[in-house]
TrEMBL record:
<keyword id="KW-0819">tRNA processing</keyword>
<dbReference type="InterPro" id="IPR002792">
    <property type="entry name" value="TRAM_dom"/>
</dbReference>
<dbReference type="InterPro" id="IPR032587">
    <property type="entry name" value="DUF4911"/>
</dbReference>
<keyword id="KW-0479">Metal-binding</keyword>
<dbReference type="InterPro" id="IPR007197">
    <property type="entry name" value="rSAM"/>
</dbReference>
<dbReference type="GO" id="GO:0035597">
    <property type="term" value="F:tRNA-2-methylthio-N(6)-dimethylallyladenosine(37) synthase activity"/>
</dbReference>
<feature type="binding site">
    <location>
        <position position="256"/>
    </location>
    <ligand>
        <name>[4Fe-4S] cluster 2</name>
    </ligand>
</feature>
<dbReference type="Pfam" id="PF16256">
    <property type="entry name" value="DUF4911"/>
</dbReference>
<dbReference type="GO" id="GO:0046872">
    <property type="term" value="F:metal ion binding"/>
</dbReference>
<feature type="binding site">
    <location>
        <position position="176"/>
    </location>
    <ligand>
        <name>[4Fe-4S] cluster 1</name>
    </ligand>
</feature>
<keyword id="KW-0963">Cytoplasm</keyword>
<comment type="similarity">
    <text>Belongs to the methylthiotransferase family. MiaB subfamily.</text>
</comment>
<dbReference type="Pfam" id="PF00919">
    <property type="entry name" value="UPF0004"/>
</dbReference>
<dbReference type="GO" id="GO:0005829">
    <property type="term" value="C:cytosol"/>
</dbReference>
<dbReference type="InterPro" id="IPR013848">
    <property type="entry name" value="Methylthiotransferase_N"/>
</dbReference>
<dbReference type="InterPro" id="IPR006463">
    <property type="entry name" value="MiaB_methiolase"/>
</dbReference>
<feature type="domain" description="TRAM">
    <location>
        <begin position="470"/>
        <end position="550"/>
    </location>
</feature>
Length: 566
């Protein structure tokens, strides 16, 4: 039995509340141990029967337990029974099917897409880049702003035509729009087979199986306050992928008045640190060197469940051998603790970058956004961060044109940007979202004013970024090399030019392109996933350019970045 079969069987079993998969026995790869709650044997029997028909899973011969045989039935201290089930590899004939996933939205959705691919892989689904060749298309949607939602519906609209040309195609809608709209999507779009919400990913294999066998239409937008399925899923990695996302918590309890997240991602819930570490180790074993820990508000990680604090989690992740770098996002300023700030001085793998969304520079607007911090409290935290870690890069999110925002209040935002001198910002025009309280606020700002304010903000930040990039020229930065740039990807195999572009990121998350000189060509194979020191020689609006001066350096980087004056 291969790994795909094992994880498929484990996956199906783990989806049931009353079954716990204990282990895959090392000595006998083909045997999975499960623990079943008393009274649930018949239910498990049914699952096994289903799997037997599908992939030839068989109970190990000669053992008891309600209809299902187990090699051994061991009394567990908690009165649970342990049985062994033996999948029969030879009967396993899985047709390879192609899966196209379209992901719109944030990093959380990128991570979810990887989970989706991971849970469907054991069913025979492998990724494809062309919709036309796919057996199933999954649209992983976002509803954070109006535009993202429109994008999802316009993509779904286009799929109607593709489905009419290929009626056996399964069309599934997942993510935040699916959670928000539920069966309204099925009613509105007859070509959609499946709508699954943000908490339903681990139930996907079961639902897809039902659709494949009976072509039914399914909606699953059930939500839960706790994380029901916490097992690490080893999703696909692209060739040479050295950076990966790992979700450490989901949902949000903050209820900012403009935000739809608490309504579509549910209550805040944290994953167990052991599962998080296991998942990171799995990624690292497959070549990942950098992880970004994800959550809507990582600063309150573990609080509710009484798990460890976020800083403690970071310290544990920092200890993972062969992991080179740790990033995280997003942090709510009100929850940014001194303990976490101090972690930047303590943990050598923690990147010197903090994304700290402020949204507005005006106290009255912050209050109406329900952000629960003031401008001065925010600035104090930035000062503390910079005191502990002088070269830390700080980035932020902004909303312009929040209901009732006056020119003076917008000026306060510009003034805050000048004061902080961010390394980069994301800025958005306010849009009404379903269930978000600000949708009912008066004083809506007209589109031209919002556009004008957005442009003014971006112009200001553009100038600051250029100045900051210019000041980096002449410095040496240690980067983690992500891979060759376009020149090589486009198949320029003989590399006619003597300088081939490569790309990496500094600890401060600056994108740095660099050339590998002719004489150092022999190092190029070693470069992806290695650390290298780059002398910065030029600055662009969104990136920097430099020259390889030392590398590849395979060891975990030393504390901070090397930086010398021009
Ligand atoms: N309108 C505009 N921008 C929004 N964001 C969240 N909700 C809205 C909205 N209704 C922005 C915030 C947040 C980022 C992810 O999206 O800046 O930090
Ligand atoms: Fe939305 Fe506020 Fe939660 Fe961020 S902290 S996800 S902006 S409610």
């Amino acid at each position: 039995m291969d790994r795909r079969q094992i994880s498929y069987v484990k996956f199906i079993l783990e989806a049931y509340d009353n079954v716990a998969v204990m282990s895959t026995l090392d000595s006998r790869e083909a045997v999975i141990q499960v623990t079943i709650a008393p009274g649930c044997e018949t239910m498990v029997d049914g699952i096994i029967q289903g799997l037997a028909g599908e992939i030839g899973v068989m109970p190990v011969e000669g053992a008891p337990a309600a209809g299902m045989s187990g090699k051994q039935a061991i009394r567990m201290p908690d009165k649970m029974k342990q049985v062994e089930i033996e999948p029969k590899g030879s009967l396993f004939q899985m047709k390879e099917k192609l899966l196209y996933i379209s992901t719109i939205g944030c990093q959380m959705n990128v991570y979810d897409a990887n989970q989706i691919a991971g849970v469907l892989a054991p069913m025979g689904y492998t990724g494809t880049d062309t919709i036309e060749s796919a057996d199933m298309v999954i649209v992983n949607t976002c509803t954070i702003r109006e535009k993202a939602e429109q994008k999802a519906f316009s993509f779904l609209g286009r799929l109607a035509k593709i489905k009419s040309a290929n009626p056996s195609l399964i069309v599934a809608v997942g993510g935040c729009v699916a959670q928000q709209e539920g069966d309204a999507i099925l009613k509105r779009m007859p070509h959609v087979d499946l709508v699954f919400g943000t908490h339903a990913i681990f139930r996907l294999p079961e639902m897809v199986r039902r659709i494949e066998s009976s072509r039914c239409r399914i909606v699953d937008v059930r939500m839960s306050d706790t994380i029901e399925f916490d097992a690490p899923v080893d999703g696909p990695l692209t060739d040479g992928q050295i950076s990966a996302f790992v979700t450490i918590m989901r949902g949000c309890d903050n209820y900012c008045t403009y935000c739809v997240v608490p309504h579509v991602r549910g209550r805040e819930a944290s994953r167990h640190p052991d599962r998080i570490l296991e998942e990171i180790r799995m990624r690292v074993d497959r070549g990942v060197r950098e992880v970004t820990l994800l959550g809507q508000n990582v600063n309150s990680y573990g609080n509710k469940e009484g798990l460890c604090s976020f800083s403690e989690l970071l310290a544990r992740v920092n200890g993972i051998e062969d992991l080179g770098r740790i990033r995280f996002t997003t942090s709510h300023p009100k929850d940014l603790s001194d303990e976490l700030i101090d972690a930047f001085g303590r943990l050598e793998k923690l990147c010197h970058h903090m994304h700290l969304p402020v949204q507005s520079g005006d106290d009255e607007i912050l209050k109406r956004m329900n952000r629960r911090y003031t401008r001065s409290a925010y600035l104090e935290k930035i000062d503390r961060l910079r005191a502990v870690c002088p070269d830390i890069a700080v980035t932020s999110d902004f909303i312009v044109g929040f209901p009732g925002e006056t020119d003076r209040q917008f000026q306060a935002t510009l003034d805050l940007i000048e004061t902080v001198r961010y390394d980069g910002v994301f800025a958005f025009m306010y849009s009404d979202r379903p269930n978000a309280p600000a949708t009912a606020f008066s004083g809506k700002i007209d589109e031209p004013t919002k556009k004008r304010r957005l442009q003014a903000l971006l112009d200001l930040q553009g100038r600051i970024t250029r100045e900051k990039h210019q000041a980096m020229v002449g410095q040496i930065r240690r980067i983690l090399v992500e891979g060759p740039g376009r020149e090589m990807e486009s198949g320029d195999a003989d590399m006619a030019s003597s300088r081939v572009q490569w790309t990496g990121r500094s600890s401060s998350n600056h994108i740095i392109h660099f050339a590998v000189p002719e004489a150092q060509r022999d190092k190029k194979e070693l470069l992806t996933g290695a650390f290298a020191d780059i002398m910065i020689e030029g600055a662009y609006a969104h990136s920097l350019r430099g020259r390889l001066i030392d590398g590849p350096i395979m060891a975990t980087p030393g504390k901070g970045e090397t930086s010398v004056a021009a």
